[in-house]
Write a structure and sequence with these properties.
The chain is of the alpha+beta class. The protein has eleven helices and ten strands. The protein folds into three domains: about 110 residues, Acyl-CoA dehydrogenase/oxidase, N-terminal domain (Butyryl-Coa Dehydrogenase, subunit A, domain 1, Orthogonal Bundle); about 110 residues, Butyryl-CoA Dehydrogenase, subunit A, domain 2 (Beta Barrel); about 170 residues, Butyryl-CoA Dehydrogenase, subunit A, domain 3, CATH 1.20.140.10. Helix 4 runs parallel beside helix 7.
Amino acid sequence: MSPTYDDLVQRLLPDDLLGTFRERAAGYDRDNAFFTQTLDDLRERGYLRLFVPEELGGLGAPVLDVTRLQRRLATADPSAALGINMHLVVTGAALLALRRGLDGARAVLEAAARDELFAFGISEAGNDVMLFDSWSTAEPDGRGGYAVTGTKIFTSMSPAWDRLITHAKVAGTDGEEDRLVFGVLRRGEGVEVLEDWDTHGMRASQSCTTVLRGAPLAAADVLDLVPVGPTQDPLRFGIFGVFELTVAAVYCGVAERAVAVARDVAVTRVSRSKGIVHADDPDIRWRLADAAIALDGAVLQIEQLAADLDAVGTVGDDGAPAQVPGTTDHGPRWYLQLSGVKSRVTEAALRAVDQCLRASGGRHFYRGSELERLSRDVRAGLYQPSDEESVHASYARGLLGDIGAER
């Protein structure tokens, strides 16, 4: 029987270990250092194998439980949660793609079962459609593989990854359309990691730029060859779904921790002018309640859509597709729903952390305050897909059609 969420918490993220992670996080942030020890602890306990099916040696966790664990990890070390999230995106996407018939995805899960660390090499400067096009190029090598050239940004866990999932455009020939190849690169020839990560927040994630110069993508490491554009092919659908939900979970966890810290401040901080603790001040109470209300809604959105995603590919005893009670197959609206929940949760988290800062006083403007660090970390969510502009553009297109279209 698969482990329950409570089993996973006790095995992977018990309270005492979270305390250790939280203590380290401040030093990693101060020194702009990678979360090496925390990654070692997570790997040793099996965190890299969360999405790997039990029959392959993993923990067989559903997306719902992974989002809960990521929220919990983010309360202790947001940068570590964001970094390891990219490994989970790759392995979670491989699991969903395998369920939908992409047999090549099994190799990703088998490598993760050996505790190999995957990174996410998709983001490119100026590429606001992300998964659905690429500025990088892939030249066929004549043996079923490709030589990949391009620059990938925000490559989390740059000091430590073993394998990098990436995509690049294959130019069409003889009148054929361009296509995108997705595959897994290994460190080595043609791969250069720049030491350029010195940022406002999420510093320990060390999400450095990765430059590819004819990096060899072997035929055995090619995962899929797909059209340019937003199709729901198994791999891209899996990446999009797991990415949006687990990223939303990380920022939700950051904000949940901010509320907990602000609550502790409120019950001990005294207003000299009013002669009461801030927990009895109506203005402070309103701000913290406002933050808590927003996060309650955020959690509900993440969990329902995660349950919906877990149900994708479910079959009945007769082998036919089956719908799990209490879940919804969103059909052509999947990408809208997934990008929408990431957008709403990230915005809710930003507002909640800001309310906590307003409620907690100027001391938390100083470095060394956990709230100050959380306020910087949560802002990284502004820059991760799907961003506000693309979400609004997608919803407008769904409501109104393309600009200039006949109606």
